[in-house]
Amino acid sequence: MNGVHVPLVTPFAEDGTVDVPSLERLAHHVLDQGAAGLVALGTTGEAPMLTGAESRTVIETCRRVSDEYGTPLTVGAGTAGTDDSVRQARERAEVADLLLVVVPYYLRPTDEGVVEHFAAVGAAAGVPLVVYNVPYRTGKTLRAESLLALLAAEYVAGVKHCPGSVDADTLALLAGGRDVLCGDDAFLYPMLALGAAGGISASGNVAPAALAAMVSAVRTGDAERGRTLHRSSLPLARALFAEPSPSVIKAVLAEQGLIAHPGVRAPLRAPAADSLGAAMDALAALDAG
Ligand SMILES: O=C(O)C1=N[C@H](C(=O)O)C[C@H](O)C1
Q: What InterPro entries does the annotation carry (predicted)?
């Protein structure tokens, strides 16, 4: 799990069904532009709003394209409960190379309960897990030692960390030595500079080359280039997340002609014209890598 992995949006056709040709076009585009792999059914893919059949269509489409490119496919999985997460992980692991498993949300279990949850899912899945730590969405903040324990587990390939800042726990995690992936687009460069292996970055849908260039600047020790790319991509990350994601991202992708329609599923809503305008301006000003 090195480099930038792109959590693809799930494009919908005008009638609201999953638009497979748009999804395929976008998947080819991001891999052509330097993404290291695809992520299906991430937050950006509106996973909670898809039916089981739609989820399978998205996974199969991403599998086909990943096989063409020889790149890894990570598939989102996990719900609030362990039994249901185990069932879903078993099913999705048949097609995925890795599973991106969200910290169980809403009930706010203890850290010990969360660690046991991942052990159960890891044992059932048979493919490596990426722990998706996103406290501002799940309502569950794990202690740094629990994150480090998960990072050290043999069934865990990495932690996708979305702290909203580079705080003390983030520093402890990055000092942990194994794969940490940044899940907060605005913090991609700072976390890479501190040793993160890469990122799962929604901005990669619209600017894959710039993010791939940032990774390569850090790898080659070109700090000045890395900082330049960071300064240039930060306004874009902010603009894309100015409204609940992925509504702005989809609107930009439709403007770019990469997907046919910008529609998102309720309760998400189309973004305000100003939000789209700000994102298009940030994209126009981007150092594209
Ligand atoms: O789709 C994802 O997975 C991502 N999740 C983060 C979030 O929205 O919480 C952001 C990241 O860019 C991609």
A: Aldolase_TIM (IPR013785), DapA (IPR005263), DapA-like (IPR002220), Schiff_base-form_aldolases_AS (IPR020625), Schiff_base-form_aldolases_CS (IPR020624)
